[in-house]
Design brief:
The structure holds 2 protein chains of 2 kinds.
Chain A: E1 3-4, E2 12-13, E3 24-37, H1 41-50, E4 53-67, E5 72-76, H2 83-90, E6 98-103, H3 112-116, E7 119-123, H4 135-146, H5 150-164, H6 179-191, E8 197-201, H7 209-226, E9 229-233, H8 237-243, E10 246-251, E11 254-259, H9 261-268, E12 272-278, E13 289-295, E14 298-303, H10 310-320, E15 323-329, H11 333-344
Parallel strand pairs in A: 5-9, 5-10, 7-8, 8-9
Antiparallel strand pairs in A: 1-2, 3-4, 3-6, 10-11, 12-14, 12-15, 13-14
Helix pairs in contact in A: 5-6, 6-7, 9-11
Chain B: H1 3-16, H2 19-45, H3 55-68, H4 79-87, H5 90-94, H6 100-130, H7 139-170, H8 179-187, H9 202-207, H10 215-222, H11 230-257
Helix pairs in contact in B: 1-6, 2-3, 2-6, 3-6, 4-7, 6-7, 7-10, 7-11
Classes of the chains: A alpha/beta, B mainly alpha.
Chain lengths: 346, 264
Amino acid sequence: MFPVKGISGPPVQVGGGCSLLSPIVVENLVKTFRVAEREPGMWGAVRGLVRRRHRRVRALGGISFAVEPGELVGYIGPNGAGKSTTVKVLSGILVPDSGRCEVLGRVPWRERIALVRQLGVVFGQRTQLWWDLPVIESFDLLRAIYRVSERDHIRARDELIALLDLAPLLDVPVRQLSLGQRMRCDLAAALLHSPKLLFLDEPTIGLDAVSKLAVRDFVRRLNRERGVTVILTTHDMDDIEALCTRVIVIGEGRILSDGTLDDLRRRVTTERWLIVDLLEDDEVSDAQATVISREGSRVCLRFDPEEVAPAALIARITARHAVRDLFVENPPIEEIIARMYRGAAP
Amino acid sequence: MSAYGAVISARFRMHLQYRAAAAAGFGTQLFWGVIRILIFGAFYRSTTAHQPMTYPQVVTYIWLSQALMRLIPWYAGDPDVRAAIRTGAVAYELLRPVDLYWTWFVRIIGASLAETALRAIPMFLVAGLFLGLQAPPSWASAGAWGLAMIGVVLLAGAMVTLLSVTMMWTISGEGVTYIVPTLAIVFSGLIVPLPFFPDWAQPILNVLPFRGMLDIPFRLYMGHIPSGQALPLFAQQMAWAVALIVIGRLLLARGTRRLVVQGG
């Protein structure tokens, strides 16, 4: 078990235990970037010719976690938190300043070529397909690059084509695909060599609702049916809620929380929301609950279940108002994460 | 097909799509070839001094250079590598189970071979039939030329790849690297065939790598350099190629350590 520092209070033990078989073990990973700075405007540009100022930006400030086989881990954090940097270190693209890291038993930056052979990676904002070539030709090239045997390639390829419904896209040059179509093709491209470990960096970014569902559904099946271990970074909390059993939250290069979604909720807030649909247009108020929003006849109240039992609160409200319907729910995950980010800000 | 073969073939096929560019390139190079020949024709008519090459040899030299000029380091580094570094797509190149240096190396070779094939084949036909391009005087000269052309491809590939690698520091690839193509154009003999350079310059031209990109193979082709010298000249081309490859690989190893993937 790795002790992980919470945003407040003592370090808490969360996350999976570490075993020899863990596909990913990261300990105390640190990565800083040197960024050239110049003052704005013409004068700044001229000064920059003579003297460059550099600033060190700490992307990862000592992060530790381990991932077990078959896990589907959500790795989330605000922009610039260090998510993509972590993925790039894990896949051997970036060399960290210090810390230990093993992926599938290999040190990524030392054994990059051997490692990436067993790794699938999708960066939602980029494509690994050849821009000017038809999709199917990209697949053939990847077969050659990964040295997959003809038989295995055809099997994996046809399966992916069926699962992701790619048949109508195969002869289209990549530059003519829509974003959703391209993402489906990119997912297939990352999986042609049947990796056991998959990194998805914002795979649903910019996709429409239907494409998002297709991607989510595919990732879920991959994980459940084939046991592929997945690390998913995203800003879309629906992705997290739909897919991830475990969530690691990172901010300013540090791990803020690591555990199940429910753990995360409990750690940030215990509050519940009571949503009431009124029959008449009354003002709702209660000493132990606060109204946080009102839309037409629907009122949303926030309360702390440790302070007031939900049953008691509901009884009071229904006694005072004519209610058509009501239900209690958790605050949306966006709300939880936003609070956690704010808590992490200096 | 090997992994690197796949990379070459992808690049080759991509360039074959740019047929309009190839047709325009062919037209331009035909035009410039005629102009250069007119200039040399005027020069030969106005001089009685002994010249290092005969007029028909110069004409052949010019048509060979018009046909094969795309093989010399035309770029200050591979434009695709520049784009990959600028946009951060280099991340995907590192995700493939192949050596990054050889990937870049074979890719620029694929591109220059495709560009050259599209221009050279029609140029050999047109210039050979109508414009005074002569065939090699012997099979030995033709063989020596073929060997030296292999040297050209490897040497120029190594030089462009080295320039590509330096973009990891300059990002834009604009800067000192632009000097290199200019040097290559002048000191390979593309503007003026190297035998016309003054005598004092010859020892310098002989040790520079650029001669191996154009002058050596063309003079072997015409028998201006006897085919017996093909092997030592090929060895010289290879020595430069190996040196540039070693430097490029060392720089790339350092560059990937300090890599910053642009755009997150």
